[in-house]
Amino acid sequence: xxxxxxxxxxxxxxxxxxxxxxxxxxxxxxxxxxxxxxxxxxxxxxxxxxxxxxxxxxxxxxxxxxxxxxxxxxxxxxxxxxxxxxxxxxxxxxxxxxxxxxxxxxxxxxxxxxxxxxxxxxxxxxxxxxxxxxxxxxxxxxxxxxxxxxxxxxxxxxxxxxxxxxxxxxxxxxxxxxxxxxxxxxxxxxxxxxxxxxxxxxxxxxxxxxxxxxxxxxxxxxxxxxxxxxxxxxxxxxxxxxxxxxxxxxxxxxxxxxxxxxxxxxxxxxxxxxxxxxxxxxxxxxxxxxxxxxxxxxxxxxxxxxxxxxxxxxxxxxxxxxxxxxxxxxxxxxxxxxxxxxxxxxxxxxxxxxxxxxxxxxxxxxxxxxxxxxxxxxxxx
Amino acid sequence: xxxxxxxxxxxxxxxxxxxxxxxxxxxxxxxxxxxxxxxxxxxxxxxxxxxxxxxxxxxxxxxxxxxxxxxxxxxxxxxxxxxxxxxxxxxxxxxxxxxxxxxxxxxxxxxxxxxxxxxxxxxxxxxxxxxxxxxxxxxxxxxxxxxxxxxxxxxxxxxxxxxxxxxxxxxxxxxxxxxxxxxxxxxxxxxxxxxxxxxxxxxxxxxxxxxxxxxxxxxxxxxxxxxxxxxxxxxxxxxxxxxxxxxxxxxxxxxxxxxxxxxxxxxxxxxxxxxxxxxxxxxxxxxxxxxxxxxxxxxxxxxxxxxxxxxxxxxxxxxxxxxxxxxxxxxxxxxxxxxxxxxxxxxxxxxxxxxxxxxxxxxxxxxxxxxxxxxxxxxxxxxxxxxxxxxxxxxxxxxxxx
Lengths: 381, 402
Hints:
heterodimer, A: alpha/beta, Spore Coat Polysaccharide Biosynthesis Protein SpsA, Chain A, UDP N-Acetylglucosamine Acyltransferase, domain 1, 7-stranded mixed sheet, 26 strands, 28% strand, B: alpha/beta, 32 strands
């Protein structure tokens, strides 16, 4: 058969790590957090998969998913309205005997029928807390060539200096990998506090589908919940678990501060170029007009989506669609989500404003560089 | 299934007065306003007016237009019944013909219209920038119990002789039609937008088709024939923004008017009358530390490090540090390198303007030309392009073109 499709299906867990950014997910989930001026976190994964020829993608919802459903629609923007495969959104409580999952094994157990009935040889499992432009076709090819049961994507970074790294106050796990010279995973460390450059798992795996089904069935019988901790870790000597180093640009959201920092990092042109290099990232289209800078506008070092009107001063900011900055307003070091309005003569610094926030005229609203102030959806300051 | 009204959009014109801009694409596909193409306006008007069936008559250089329209999804015109259809000339058992005139283009597609058995057909032209509610036009047509209505604009009397004019009585009934007359009896210019009762349109199309001496044109043949027969013809007054962007200077002007919605009347920011377009899929635009941007519109994929004043940048335009762009329309994918000066001009898609090159000049009392650079052209380092130049081919380093 002539086909540029990958022999893999995608499964995305949109709620993973919700607990790390409670403010941002009060009305949504990790996957639908707005990022990089016109995207949602899930756009990067979905687009990467689609661009790699994966066109059978399931989203396993857990909670707070209205905004994600709205964003995804029929999946058309990602070319996922397909007769075969396409976008498959799996709500919780959809069938008798299915409960809201906590670990990945439970989530996968809930969709065993789907896993069994699919025809693809491989499954790509992924969380949505990472924005990256990933060539899954290359990962899958290497997985196939290595004969591994599981291939784990990781990237090398020193996260210990970044805020949000010491996540002692959360129930979520994160994993660092120890590898041998053949990139086989020897050890998986859970919530390690090691400093320096580590191999950080991206929680993106390529797994043989049949193998995954067997392991999920087996683990469920034994009451195990977590795929990494309960399935992979105890069996590293039995299974062939390989690691694949992702060397592209990675934006990781694990705290409100990292959300701020990762957005700001994209103001550096080389970072944005690295993230958006190569394949397009698709998103829901809103049909805004281009952004307008009036005669009084002063803009320096910003990234902006369409639909904004800038009449004031704006520096070091990420502006999402439809942001209005009125005359005399001075906005610095802010992330302003969709349809935020900063009224006349207002000074705003170190803010993260959620959608539809209005800051009225003649105000002075400031967070600090170490603690950007978050203003919730639809609030009027 | 019956439709109340379907639209037939004339998009076959070459737009020869746009010269270099329409060498590779039809006029309706010419980019406009930062992220649109001209055809987005009539298509969006249709959808916003509740028309869900549109036939697009293409003939000249249809490739870009066809690809752009695709299945019509960006305009919500991918429908089970109806939707958007591109209608090129085709071969028949009796032979094959190009579209000989505007009326002939519709005549050759009578069978398309009959599939929807509409009461009314609106004829649109694909080369105007206009936000218009066609449902209000139809309301007028029905109220007047008309058989034919034409949308008209009041133009200044001194310019009236440049237009096709409708002479109407106090009830708006048309009594006479003057095509670019020396002595105008009216200042109501036809916008080239017509509503016909389908039975009337069909009758006159067939009659016109049988006339070997006819130019098969709405203005020259069909409308005079309707007048001759005393048909119920009415003029619908439209007073919104309307611009025929048939020339380089009017295209440039209309783009500049987009930058000044408060005065020009063309507001693309209207939530209630969105103009839809096919999305470029590029990331948000960047304004760097060294950039200066005022009075401009900038869209996805742009990277601006230079100075941009009173200009429109389309998707994916790069303006390097030290480059100056003023009063310019710069279309998608173009790169303006450091030290280049680009003023009062139209630069088409995927052009490279190299270091220190000078393109166009601000208008003076005697010289108001809009320099034009065709798509995919490279302008060499230090090259000079005069304000009246029409550049179709690469210009070497240091060369001049006037």
